[in-house]
Amino acid sequence: xxLINLKLNEYLxxxxxxxxxxxxxxxxxxxxxxxxxxxxxxxxxxxxxxKYAQWDDSIRAAKAQAETLYKGFAEAIDKDTEAFNLxxxxxxxxxxxxxxxxxxxxxxxxxxxxATKVPFSVMKMAAEGLAVAESMAGKFNVNAASDLGVAVxxxxxxxxxxxxxxxxxxxxxxxxxxxxxxxxxxxDLIKNGExxxxxxxxxxxxxx
Length: 208
Hints:
By secondary structure, this protein is mostly helical. About 80% of the residues lie in helices and about 0% in strands.
């Protein structure tokens, strides 16, 4: 069952239940997908308008980038849940013999690393999304200003949410050097993202 193929109410019903997945990671990816879709919509509402003709090429490029990000975020909705399921399955593996214990330990480590990689990739896509929004600033249909603003808010919810999912898995990453790399890179993405998002929100709110 692919989450992305569910009806909205079906997805929400699963989220509402006591099922541990989908959880925060998939929800974060969904926030990113919503942001990318909104940016594409804003671009569509700008392209072809005489008032914004001088920026037509730039907005078309932004639309293409947003659509690519949408696909990535949409895939990550399921990838995050699949990564969680890998870890959950690994913990259920038998551990009676030394060989079984070793296999279980290896599976847990591999699953945890995947459960770290997926949300980290979502964080990077959110950063790319902010770059798209920045490229649209001052060039898009002002009637859609609130929509681009909501896209920016969703991008930061996506990034922060994905970061929480990276952090919760980092203690289980056995390669300490790799774990440190994820931690440092994640903190940089959050700091930089919040600064960029703040500037974007200010520009957009000045248009309202």
